[in-house]
Amino acid sequence: MNSELAEHSQFKDAETGQFNPKSLIIWPLSQLFRFIEWPMKRIQNLLGLGTMPYIFLLPNLCFFGLFVVLPLFVNFAFSLTGGTNLYLDERAFTGTEQYAFLLDCGNYADPLSCREDRFWKGLFNTAIFITLQLTFLVLFSLITALVLNKKIRARGFFRSVYFFPVLLSPVVVALIWKWILLRDGILNAWLVELSFDKILFFVSPAWAMFWAIFISIWAHMGFYTLIILAGLQAIPPDLYEAAEMDGTKQERIFWRITLPLLWPNLLVVIVLALIKGVQTFDEVFVLTGGGPGTATQFIVQYIYNTGFTNQIQNFGLAAAASVILGVVLFALTMFQLAATRWKDNG
Amino acid sequence: MLKKLRRILTAGSVAMAVWATPLFAETQLRMTWYNDGIEGEVMRSLLDRFEAQNSDIKVTLDVVPYKSIMESLPVQLAAGDGPDIARVTDLGGLSKYYMDLRPHLSDAGYWEKSFGPFLKWLRQPGDTSAISGFMTQLTVTGPYVNKTLFEQAEVPMPGKGATWDDWAKASKQVADKLEIPIPMAWDRSGHRVSGPAIAMGAKMFDGSGEPALIDEGLKRMTQRLYDWHQQGIMAKELWGSVSGSTYLGANEDFTNAQVVMYMSGSWQIPQFAKNIGDAFDWWAVPAPCGPAACTGMPGGAALVAMKDTKHPEEVAKLMDWLAQEENLAEFYGRTLFIPGHLGLAEKGVDFDTEDPRAKHALETFAGAVPGISPTAFDLQGYVYNRVMFNALISRLNEAIMGELTLDQAYKRMEQDIQQQIAEKKRGS
Side-chain half-sphere of B314: how many Cα atoms within 13 Å? Predict the structure, then answer.
């Protein structure tokens, strides 16, 4: 077979004249490039060299436009319509009615005074969740990264252990913890073993929120620890050596060297975790189903319920809530950019 | 080398063409299905027999989770990308996607005679004649009790005509004596609450047939449910541990003897027979009474043909074959489902079980059908009944968990129903 192929010059090695297995890949590619070379040259001649980067970006931009930008516009268009028909041209135009419905409140601090109380409860729950989750997530990730940056025994093992939950699917994470926390789960079995009463974790709003936050931190901490660890390793060691030679206390080193130089990484962690926190859905949905009551029902679950689980699938209202969520996320992203620029400008 | 490759490709193409010819000649139908028990296996065996008799039709049975039937199937149908046939429980809600089988049926009278009262559940409002499918099972909601626990606790089981209060009291006594964690559990479903609410006098509709969920009858039942949760007769962890209208069953807790009395329905019989067996005496009891009636809710699942099918003739042929009395007798008998075929209901079905508990449960639920309140039938046939069920269960749950008062919950239920139905009407 090889000798048969080697009879063809395109499969021969130029130096040895023997069959070259790599040529099986190289030859078709070279044919492809030869095929597109002529049109690319024509385009370059026609549009000029400066336009070529955009031509190369065009395929990617097409995909991005089709699967990201276009759905954004379609979603916005849906938010201006009502009814239950799926196709946009069959839906009734309602203008800003869906937004007015969502934002109709007697007192914005009290969800029960709002016409769509569940939307506001979802927003409030999300705000509580991200405030606590973000604070502790950044804190624990920082502490873990600082420890893993030291020369401790089995450092590689611990780095893997902390990263391992990140690899798990959110549904798997939630199911594992649900089995641990149920009335007859492992944790309650231990409590009974230690002569305590069983705790019904999913009946108490406080416990349910606690576990939603705890599990979210446990599942995602590894990723953020890794970012902070990379930042720590990028700090020049001679700064620490100079500080040690000056007899600077560890606490002062942390506040004056580590933290300021780590700040760009921390900012990335804060913004990424914030955006991820706002989008939280799958883990908590599987873990608590949004309960007890509506104690852990977040904004994304509200959108999902409104658009899909109700008998009357209210796509317009769900789309309007999505647009509001999108605006919040956009504001957070702008905040990241502004904060980065502010930091860069001293 | 290249000649050899050309020869191989040519031979391959010819072989593919020869192999594919019969595939093009036969009609492929897709049936979307979900399982409560073994009915998927039974349907597959019936389909195999149909295929043997009709070699030009092949039927693929897509078994999906029940959640997909409720959430994904409506979107598929709205997008015109649904199956040819599906097993559904939102009978009226999806009726605009159903096909009228009449033009393709040789004997539409048989369908009218056999499925008469249930056919209207599948029709769109105003339609009085379409035939779109048949009930794969008729269900009746009602309670099961763990009779063994009653015997062990030496608490007498309330007899015929007992009220919900009698049962709640007795279940609590049993649970307290034997330290059973949950005296009484109900499926977390508005459908399950509606039967007892009607028994308490709930009318569900106003004089003009529009939904009117909140009245004194409904309040009597919801107040009890609220109190039972606060008193520990019902466990908050079942209804309270999720939000919105999410369905949760207590079947596993009942199977594990953690529940004294379990309000569910006839569809649990096959799995209780399989999973509990003779571990304890699980006993179906007649629907407890209220001042207005002793009723559960009817319901069930239907097999319906979809109008977007590209093969209406073949779909009708299959539906007609499956709906024949002898085939349905086998289906109901093997699955232990209450027949949704009037002829079989009258003659009786030879249920494929030797379990005395299962037989007793089937007799109890089948016997409950004549006593079902007309209001319950009207509610089951109402096209937006799930809007009412979902508003009821989600807002009542928020009251039970202390987020709303009962009065606030009633107001929210009414608002939810009005808003959703208005949204539906706006688009149609």
Answer: 20
Chain B CB contacts of A27 below 8 Å: none
Q: What are phi and psi of B301, to 5 degrees?
A: -120, 145
How many CB contacts within 8 angstroms connect chain A with chain B? 120
Q: Do A311 and B384 touch (CB under 8 A)?
A: yes
**Taking CB atoms and an 8 Å cutoff, what residues of chain B touch A284?**
none
Verify whether the Cβ–Cβ distance A291 to B401 is below 8 Å: yes
Residue A70 belongs to domain spanning: 2-75
Is A202's CB within 8 Å of B237's CB?
yes
Structural domains of chain B, with CATH? 2-138+299-347 (3.40.190.10), 140-298+363-427 (3.40.190.10)
SS3 letters across A34-52: HHHHHHHHHHHHHHCHHHH
Which of B244, B412, B421 is the closest to A290 by Cβ?
A: B244
Secondary structure of residue A194 in the 3-state scheme:
coil
Shared domain for A173 and A256, answered yes or no, is yes
User: Are the C-beta atoms of residues B268 and B256 closer than 8 Å to each other?
Assistant: no
Could you give the ipTM of this predicted complex? 0.79
Domains: count for chain A: 2
Which pLDDT tens digit goes with each residue over B54-105? 999 999 999 999 889 988 899 899 888 999 999 999 898 899 999 999 999 9
Residue in B with minimal Cα distance to A118: B244
Do both A267 and A122 map to the same domain?
yes
